[in-house]
Each structure stands twice: as C-alpha cells, then as structure tokens.
Amino acid sequence: YVRRRECRRECRTIEKACGTVFDEYREDLAELLYKSQKTPMSLEKISSRVCTKWSKVCPAKTVPASYKRKDEYWMPMDEESYKIHSMEKQMNKLSKQAGSQPVKFVDPMGGMMMGSNGWDEEENGWEDPMMNMM
C-alpha cells in the first residue's frame, strides 16, 4: 500500500531546491558517493556537504528551538488523481521538448461531482454541488 499525496507549495519548494543543487553538483555527488564506498562517510557528513556547503542557502543563524513550524495540509491522492497527474507530467515533458505550451488538467468542481449530491446520483434530478459549500 502506497500513500500518495499531492505535491503542493512546500513539496515543490523542496523539489526545486534539491533539483538545483543536484543539477549543479551532479558529478561531485557521484564522486563523493563513489569515494564513500572505499572509506565510508556518515550520513550526517554527506548531508552537511550537500545541504550546507553546496546549497549555500542554509541560514547563517540557527532557528530558535522555540520556533514551531506549521506543516502544510496533507492532501491524499486517490489512484485516479495519481494517474491524471502522471499523464499531465508526461504530456508536459513532451510539450517542453516540442517547444509548446504546458498542459494543466483541471477539475472545475474539485472532485465534488463524485459521491453524494452530485451528478452521479440522478434519482432526485440534478442537484447543484455548490449548494453544499454555502
């Protein structure tokens, strides 16, 4: 069982930061990992090198221990949403190679059509799903 979730702002920020460091230091990281086979390096030393020395984005001052960080809301993703996101990602990759505009699949109702008070249950006729929002 794999729990998938939607990658939102926090996830994308981390993805972009890691991708930038990885793109710039790809060969250095490969060399570091290769050398660590002969003389083992601790995970702390490797992450210190990657997250502090190479990234150059870590703050000079440490964060106070009293600081309470609020996590971003976890948005679970069902199998259908995962397939749509995967297809969107693949199409964007192809459109980037072709030099065309990126694709964004949007559910205008945000998934409100599935389940109760939507178009799936036609017994009482059509009900406006937005009525539940008010």
Task: Describe the protein's architecture and organization.
It is a single chain. With 134 residues, this protein is mostly helical. The protein folds into two domains: 1-59, no CATH class; 78-134, no CATH class. It is built from four helices and no strands. It is extended. The two termini are 36 Å apart. Residues 112-124 have low confidence and may be disordered.
Helix % is 40-55%
Please indicate the count of domains.
2
Q: State the low-pLDDT regions, or none.
A: 112-124
Structural class of the secondary structure composition? mainly alpha
Q: Radius of gyration over alpha carbons?
A: 22 Å
Number of β-strand runs:
0
Amino- and carboxy-terminal Cα gap: 36 Å
Compute the average pLDDT.
76
Strand content: under 5%
Kindly report the oligomeric state of this protein: single chain
Q: What would the principal axes of the Cα set say about the shape? A: extended
> DSSP helix count?
4
Largest sheet, in brief, is: none
H/E order of the elements? HHHH
Question: Which structural traits does this protein have?
Answer:
extended, mainly alpha, 134 residues, 2 domains
